[in-house]
Specification:
The complex is a heterodimer of chains A (116) and B (111). Chain A is mostly beta strands and 116 residues long. Chain A has no helices and 11 strands. Chain B is an all-beta fold. Chain B has no helices and 11 strands. In chain B, strands 2, 4, 5, 9, 10 and 11 form a 6-stranded mixed β-sheet that branches. In chain B, strands 1-3-8-7-6 form a 5-stranded antiparallel β-sheet, with no helix packed on it. Classes of the chains: A mainly beta (116), B mainly beta (111).
């Protein structure tokens, strides 16, 4: 158990809908990362938050947004869903402080999103 | 974004054989991580490396942080069926922000 909790584990929704994925980081970790993994693909970085603030942005679509709350949990919002958004969405957390070394990222079990 | 080249893309080996895979980057990293992912599961951290030249072991796994800081390799000795999965490398730069992932090496162990 990595200590990172993601809910829900599975989600099936129709095209055009909006969903929210939730992530609770490991206790004490201030950084949260979101990744998308399509079938048989690698991990595509979406966005990183550190202590409630956006830190880095990857290839995240404008239809997607995220936030990190004061209790450090994070939510990834996906709207106007398309078939191609079907994927595994992973959250990871780390104790990374910007500019500080020697940290590791731990992943949750992921949310499998299926858009039909 | 940052590109990590991981090779080989896939490997098919006999049980008991040793495995070697590597990861290269066009930029310098301060941290190299190696993960294993089983189908439908989240990546699990295997080894973390923090210093150039560092060699670290975790059971049958050994990883090294390249001296140039632009590469890392992972060795698995005496492979067993439960080693099957996809192995990812990941690097983090000096800003301490996002982790960049390699494209993965799919390992199949034939009993």
């Amino acid at each position: 158990d990595s200590g990172v909790t993601q809910t829900p584990k599975h989600l099936i929704t129709a095209t055009g809908q909006r969903v929210t994925l939730r992530c609770s980081p490991r206790s004490g970790d201030l950084s949260v990362y979101w990744y998308q993994q399509s079938l048989d693909q690698g991990l595509q970085f979406l966005i990183q938050y550190y202590n409630g603030e956006e830190r880095a942005k990857g290839n995240i679509l404008e239809r997607f947004s995220a936030q990190q709350f004061p209790d450090l949990h994070s939510e990834l919002n996906l709207s106007s869903l398309e078939l191609g958004d079907s994927a595994l969405y992973f959250c990871a957390s780390s104790a990374t402080l910007p500019g500080k070394l020697n940290t590791e990222a731990f992943f949750g079990q992921g949310t499998r999103l299926t858009v039909v | 974004g940052q590109q990590l080249n991981q090779s080989p893309q896939s490997m098919f080996i006999q049980e008991g054989e040793d495995v070697s895979m590597n990861c290269t980057s066009s930029s310098i990293f301060n941290t190299w991580l190696w993960y294993k992912q089983d189908p439908g599961e989240g990546p699990v951290l295997l080894i973390a490396l923090y210093k150039a030249g560092e060699l670290t072991s975790n059971g049958r796994l050994t990883a090294q942080f390249g001296i140039t800081r632009k590469d890392s390799f992972l060795n698995i000795s005496a492979s067993i069926p439960s080693d099957v999965g996809i192995y990812f490398c990941a690097g983090q730069g000096r800003t301490g922000n996002q982790f960049y992932f390699g494209t993965g090496t799919s390992l199949t162990v034939i009993p």
